[in-house]
Specification:
With about 250 residues, this protein is mainly alpha-helical. The chain has 10 helices and no strands. α3 runs antiparallel to α4. It is rod-shaped and about 85 Å long. It starts with a helix and ends with a helix. About 0% of the residues have low confidence. This is Tetraspanin. Belongs to the tetraspanin (TM4SF) family. It is found in: Membrane. It is a multi-pass membrane protein. Keywords: Disulfide bond, Glycoprotein, Membrane, Transmembrane, Transmembrane helix.
């Protein structure tokens, strides 16, 4: 059994570590809520972009939602483990934080390395969507995505509105109405004439705008992911220290 002075020195350290770890766990829980919100936002706001590349489908929003939900659960578990002062719970919490750190680091690096491939695949998918566009087919997700992008980003075609002149849809119906600045001025006759349509439709191509939107949003998501990833190191350190001090304190009392 160790001297009382030794135990008296250990208890304040444990109390201090518990305070820091509870505060950390609450912040960690909040980051999970942020990831959940980003995942839901990505699913709702970027659905049109993801549906373009149906052959190269991505589960990124679901991954963020799932990761956020798990972090919320383990954030609460971290608070509970800290309050209980259970060494094995704290070690389990530290192991989970380590896994989250490695997973987010790998995901972030992979996204950065393959960003150009993702952009190229999106370009091919968008060109195919324009070439096979059928505005009268409500079941076509790619056509609906093209319409949504053109209306939302105020653009038309792949490089510009003249790209529609080479499509089968243009020969039948002209430039899609989703390209119009003001639908009241877009008559079928104007949409079937590229020269006349140039004054009534958006002239900027969509691909550049789509990639700009995707890259800016991916930058935000990547920044949040890397920030959260390195934030785990603090939790791992605190969990391991608290577990060690509690274990040593239990031995000292024997």
């Amino acid at each position: 059994m160790s001297p009382p002075s030794r135990r008296l020195q250990t208890k304040p350290v444990i109390t201090c570590l518990k305070t820091f770890l509870i505060s950390y766990s609450l912040i960690f829980w909040f980051t999970g809520v942020i990831l959940l919100a980003v995942g839901v936002w990505g699913k709702v706001s970027l659905e049109a972009y993801f549906s373009l590349a149906s052959e190269e489908s991505t589960n990124a929003p679901y991954v963020l939602i799932g990761t956020g939900a798990i972090i919320v659960i383990f954030g609460l578990f971290g608070c509970f483990a800290t309050c209980r002062g259970s060494p094995w719970m704290l070690k389990l919490y530290a192991m989970f934080l380590t896994l989250v750190f490695l997973a987010e680091l790998v995901a972030g690096v992979s996204g950065f390395i393959f960003r150009h491939e993702i952009k190229a695949k999106l370009g091919v998918a968008y060109q195919n969507a324009v070439a096979t566009y059928n505005g009268t087919d409500s079941s076509s997700s790619s056509s609906a995505a093209v319409d949504a992008i053109q209306r939302t980003l105020f653009c038309c075609g792949f490089n510009n509105y003249t790209d529609w002149g080479d499509t089968p849809y243009f020969k039948e119906s002209g430039v899609p109405a989703s390209c119009c600045k003001d639908n009241t001025n877009c008559s079928p006759e104007i949409l079937k004439d590229l020269d006349k349509a140039g004054t009534e439709v958006y002239t900027v191509g969509c691909f550049a705008r789509v990639t700009n939107v995707m890259e800016s949003n991916l930058g935000i998501i990547a920044g949040i992911s890397f920030g959260i990833a390195f934030f785990q190191l603090i939790g791992i350190f605190l969990s391991c220290c608290l577990s060690r001090y509690i274990t040593n304190n239990q031995y000292e009392m024997v």
